Amino acid sequence: MNKMKQWSVLTLTAISLFLFAGIASAHVTVQPPTVEQNSYQVFAVRVPSEKENVTTTTVKVKVADGVKVSRVEPKTGWKYELESDPSTKAITAITWTAEGAGLSQTEFTDFRMSGKVAEDAKQLVWKAYQTYSDKSVVEWVGGDGAEYPASVTTVTAAAAGAGDSGHGGGTSSETAGGKDAAANNTAASSDETAQPMTADEDSTKANVTLGLAIAAVVLAAAALVVAAARKKR
């Protein structure tokens, strides 16, 4: 086997592994990936269904320490249940359950909620539990580099003079009545167009990666053919 053929075989192997890794890397994540301290946000739990011949029927997410979730967006075809801390009444977990068949292997969806990031938060760790129709559960709770990692939102310092993200600059002791509702409505409104763009960006990146990998495989295969032809001469 000459050097050209050896190189081609190694290239094909490497590209195949890269292509497989790109396809199999879909995780349950929470968007956006970065937020500011002391800001109101709309978070989207992005859930891809990955198993063959079964569907995703239930998704449970534990609210990350450092954020206070106050509202959940209704979603057609799904019902949700809230868990709260008995003493503080704060929402601690949300479970979405499909009213129909659920998500098939080729589908994904977003579950949205709104809340406020604490002024001293450093990062938000979201643990998720994905249940399939065969009753198997994938626990997205691991650390960075784990097979099933928890989604982590990076929290940056609030911009100078932002003052409660532009919602009047009130103190942390302000009541949650109409002002909290207006703040969450403003956050939801501002993110209505931004969130789908995140999905498009993810899709574009995945398509580019897939396209490059396929092109590399084709080139490597062509190199193998050329190498074989030269050997016969």
UniProtKB/TrEMBL annotation:
Signal in keyword set: yes
Stretches assigned to the YncI copper-binding domain: 27-142
Regions of compositional bias (Low complexity) in chain numbering: 172-194
Signal sequence segment: 1-26
InterPro entries referenced in this protein's UniProt entry, alphabetically: YcnI-copper_dom (IPR012533), YcnI-like_sf (IPR038507)
CDD domains: YcnI_like
Keywords, sorted A to Z: Membrane, Signal, Transmembrane, Transmembrane helix
Location of region: Disordered: 161-202
TM region(s), chain numbering: 208-229
Protein name per Swiss-Prot or TrEMBL: DUF1775 domain-containing protein
Source species: Paenibacillus albus
